Here is the input.
Amino acid sequence: AQSVTQLDSHVSVSEGTPVLLRCNYSSSYSPSLFWYVQHPNKGLQLLLKYTSAATLVKGINGFEAEFKKSETSFHLTKPSAHMSDAAEYFCVSPLKGAGSYQLTFGKGTKLSVIP
Amino acid sequence: NAGVTQTPKFQVLKTGQSMTLQCAQDMNHNSMYWYRQDPGMGLRLIYYSASEGTTDKGEVPNGYNVSRLNKREFSLRLESAAPSQTSVYFCASSDTGASGNTIYFGEGSWLTVV
Here is the structure.
């Protein structure tokens, strides 16, 4: 079964510095992978997704992620953090179920941005 | 453009009471889902419905029932609420449930069982 592991439960960066949120996946085949963001007391919003096309995926708000099969990683990056980036981020992969795919969530990484 | 709408947003229940969380989507999606979110646990799937007329258990179905009322609506019922069901509940929907399809989430329902 496919699963994802987010390596950091909390990341803290200064405003204007780069962001790196790490995610490793385990699978015997090339997966689809997603990053979702959740702002406080809000629902989840899709940041970007990888679906076996280009390995470098660009998302909203300046985020991007690179799928590296050799490292089984799908890390999320942004060159320069903004205060509005403070949120919780989830690395997610689909898991085949009966007639549908369900999402398997990592445990989340809380990003703090220091002014 | 409403997307996925959940009601109620906040609810406090006493142990043993029942309640139903309502969810509706206006994107003509086939698949709908209920998740719960607990601190440090990510989101865990309770039940899902791949298409109208079908429902299946997810990772944590105990204590819950669901009804896919029609293509738009997917409700989650707690028959006898327990404190362990205190959580944030998210309804979601997607087009065909294929692995690459985006899943859209509602804003969440905060449930406290005392």
